[in-house]
Design a protein that fits this description.
The complex is a heterodimer of chains A (284) and B (314). Chain A has helices at 5-29, 34-51, 75-85, 124-138, 157-168, 189-193, 198-204, 217-229, 263-283; strands spanning 66-69, 145-150, 174-180, 183-184, 187-188, 208-213, 235-240. Chain A is of the alpha/beta class. The model of chain A has no long low-confidence stretch (mean pLDDT 97). Chain B is an alpha/beta fold and 314 residues long. Classes of the chains: A alpha/beta (284), B alpha/beta (314).
Chain lengths: 284, 314
């Protein structure tokens, strides 16, 4: 899919609405992970509004592309994108993490249409995505599978078991995206347990590796297109992102990994995002 | 067939491998994964026949379990095989990737119990039932002979939700009759009796039957119940045995903590409190030895079970 002027402008404008709804839901829960949702948001929007073949009104359509959020703690971003895509009402978003809500603190596939796998124990969603891609190959390769992992998550051994296995099966219908925001709960990834050079490691594991700016829509769309065009091996996209992207007082701050904004902080974040959105509208 | 007309003993891993390879013909949705133990678990039989539906995942059980979950979420029926200790040892993957989403993954754990012998403790599945019992949606089946294994595998193709099938390396004497019908969740009364009920599972069912015969010579009338489905357990049959024989001796090649003994105690404590003796691996680690020496050491052979029963009845 090409990303022309109007489509690009729509994505850029919606990115602010998504970030606001996402933060609003986290604030409503008074718990959650703002930093990692904001770093993932542009990638998620591109998947659901541009790249993936899916039918929000028919969530169990057999040939739909699959998305697995292996870094399950970023699920408010996914809930927000799914709601905007039409899977369920945006009114559900503020029920995040409340007792009885299908919007669990981490994804539960059996509770909500659009969620494809239950994740949250890090390292496991990558493998689940490989299983889906294998199933697709057995059934005539009718759908593609996308997985998002985190950089902190990649300290889990299972990530490397999974990284070893997908190329063995030639899963060119699989695209794994690293939300490389460089910060985890206890500090910076480099300090806690360095995983660099990540791209080199994945190349050594025989993946088609692309490195992009994970907030640049044309780059994101281009990488997905290249992944689709690549045959014989799976694609791994190292998406360089900024933790807390879009809210200046959250950007690059460890403190915003797992703390919800209070009322004043939410208001400040929303004001900043609305102001930035207005500038994008004027430019368009 | 042996010369005396009794059927030859068959390891339940062999019966499993043959049954699965046969079911592959009629069930294209069945896929099989193994972690470099296909020869040992007998998943190799399926792999040879259906190479396109067999995935050797290497020595990486956590990833294998997740991949199996993904295959199930996309409509397949994955049989995921390794030694019982290794596969259930990846507990978080079983819990999160397989059970929480109620996938149709069948975890096949072979080489259960001290009966694997010489390889010693690190290869013995001795805590696997306890682990799997704690998981919502998980069912647990441990067949006692080849007929029961075949029935269980046939049943599992259609079962809804995750399941753990526990198979043995050692050969098992036939305990069921020709034409045996496997019924999920139903215990099987193999011998009736009124003084004591032995509740056994898997590889200890055969020795328990022989123990009952030894005890009969002492004038003890012993009922023997085979519990092939450990979860959900047949509470009705156990409660009836508790009422009628007043004493229950559980026998298993697994830790007495959390295994069949634990399951029977939990079921009957709430339903029909009765004197119970749990017999199995008594909260210790396994060790190397011949299977025969280990069964004698842990009193899991017929004379050992009979001795424990005599002590219990007093």
């Amino acid at each position: 899919m090409t990303l022309d002027g109007p489509a690009l402008a729509t994505l850029r404008r919606r990115a602010f609405d998504l970030r606001i709804d996402n933060l609003d839901a986290i604030a409503s829960a008074q718990s959650g992970h703002p930093g990692g949702t904001l770093s993932a948001m542009d990638l998620l929007q591109t998947l659901y509004f541009l790249e993936m073949r899916h039918r929000p009104a028919e969530p169990h359509w057999a040939e739909r592309d699959r998305f697995v959020l292996s870094k399950g703690h970023a699920v408010p971003a996914l809930y927000t994108v799914l709601a905007h895509a039409g899977y369920f009402s945006r009114d559900l978003l503020p029920t995040l993490r409340h007792l009885g809500s299908p919007l669990q603190g981490h994804p539960a596939d059996f509770l909500l249409p659009g969620i494809e796998a239950s994740t949250g124990s890090l390292g496991q969603g990558f493998s689940i995505g490989i299983g889906m891609a294998l199933a697709s190959k057995l059934d005539g390769d009718k759908f593609r599978t996308y997985v998002m992992i985190g950089d902190g998550e990649s300290q889990e051994g299972q990530i490397w078991e999974a990284a070893m296995s997908a190329p063995k099966f030639g899963l060119d219908n699989l695209c794994v995206i690293l939300d490389h925001n460089k910060i985890q709960l206890d500090g910076s990834v480099v300090d806690i347990m360095n995983i660099e050079p990540f791209a080199d490691k994945m190349r050594a594991f025989n993946w088609n590796v692309l490195t992009i700016d994970g907030h640049d829509y044309p780059q994101i769309a281009g990488a997905f297109a290249e992944a689709r065009a690549t045959k014989g091996k799976p694609t791994f996209i190292v998406a360089q992102t900024i933790k807390g992207k879009g809210v200046s007082f959250m950007e690059g701050k460890v403190a915003w990994h797992g703390v919800a904004p209070n009322k004043e902080q939410l208001a400040a974040a929303v004001a900043e995002l609305r102001a930035a959105q207005a500038l994008v509208k004027e430019a368009a | 067939m042996a010369r005396d007309g009794t059927p030859a003993a068959v390891a339940s891993r062999d019966a499993f491998g043959e049954a699965l390879a046969r079911l592959g013909e009629t069930h294209p949705e069945v896929v099989v994964l193994d972690a470099d133990l296909a020869e040992s678990t007998r998943s190799r039989m399926f792999a040879k026949k259906f190479p396109e539906r067999f995935f050797d995942m290497g020595i990486a059980e956590a990833n294998m379990l997740g991949v199996a979950a993904g295959l199930s979420l996309a409509g397949k029926i994955p049989f995921c095989c390794s030694f019982a200790c290794f596969i259930t040892g990846r507990f978080d993957q079983v819990k999160m990737s397989i059970c929480y989403s109620a996938t149709n993954v069948r975890i096949v754990g072979s080489h259960c119990g001290v009966a694997i012998g010489e390889d010693g403790y690190s290869q013995m599945g001795l805590e696997d039932i306890a682990l799997m019992r704690s998981l919502p949606t998980m069912s647990i089946i441990q067949p006692a002979d080849d007929l029961e294994t075949i029935g269980a595998v046939e049943y599992l193709v259609a079962h809804k939700g995750p399941a753990f099938l526990r198979t043995t390396r050692q050969k098992l004497d036939r305990v069921n009759q020709d034409g045996y019908l496997f019924q999920f969740g139903k215990g099987v009364t193999l011998v009736d009796g009124k003084d004591l009920t032995i509740v056994a599972t898997g590889g200890t069912v055969g020795p328990s039957l022989k123990a009952a015969a030894l005890l009969a010579k002492d004038g003890l009338s012993v009922r023997v119940i085979n519990i092939h489905t450990i979860k959900p357990i047949d509470v009705e049959l156990l409660a009836k045995a508790a009422r009628e024989t007043k004493r229950i001796l559980t026998v298993e090649d697994h830790q007495i903590t959390g295994g069949l003994g634990g399951a029977v105690c939990e079921a009957l404590a709430e339903r029909e409190p009765v004197r119970i003796r749990r017999h199995g691996i008594p909260d210790v680690f396994g060790e190397s030895g011949t299977p025969e020496a280990l069964y004698e050491h842990f009193k899991l052979d017929a004379p050992g079970i009979a001795a424990v029963a005599r002590d219990f009845v007093g």
